[in-house]
Design brief:
mainly alpha, 71% helix
Amino acid sequence: MLTSTVCAAVSAAGLAVAALTAYRKRFLAATRIAAFALIPVGLAMTGIIDWITGLVLKPTVWAGFGLLAVSAVLFVIGRAVERRRGGAGSRKERRAARRAMVAPGAAAPSLGSGPTGPRPAGKGKSAAPEDDFSDIEAILKKHGI
């Protein structure tokens, strides 16, 4: 009964504000304010307000919401762990699938026709600076720079 009275008072105040807004020739804003002002009375008349207050004030309802929240969190954690592991299947299957995803020569650089392996060091000295820049010069010439 108290909720209906409060809803009626809120709606009356909202309709008064809508009337003042319409008096100032702002009819579109007045229409919106009137629409919002009628919502509390409509909710009270349909019984939704009593249903909501019944939900809010019962501890068993809050316990149920708590259990639903725990269930949702556990579900999300389970999905995250499943995605992190890579889905269903044994560890050997996942390892084989991971190896099959990478092409055999994918790790080798594709900069030129030179050897792809490590270069042997010659007598403890590094290669001449001219050799280092020759690769860069070839790339620049290739692109017309």
